[in-house]
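The authors assume throughout that readers already know how a fold can be written as discrete tokens. For illustration, here is how one protein appears when written out as sequence plus structure tokens:
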Amino acid sequence: MASEVKAVLDSWVRYEQQLKESEQAELTKTVIEKVLASLKDEKTQREILASAVAEVERMWSPVLLQDLLTNALLFICRTCEEQGNLM
């Protein structure tokens, strides 16, 4: 009888673990989908870019900053053109 109870409990623990993993996978998928959707929003893109520029301005000298921003903008433009996602 004890072995049957142990088997049932072990089975239940495995079931709960599988359920938890499934819920976590679904939550992860949902979060990733929402983040990717928000990244397509033009307002969000501008906010991210503005935040990145502000952060870089705090860290870099004006000369290095100008070169960095020029290269970053060229990279962004090329990437958007390749993906067909011009802002």
Summary: The chain has two domains: 1-39, 42-87. Residues 2-39 form the longest helix (38 residues). The CA atoms of residues 57 and 65 lie 7 Å apart.
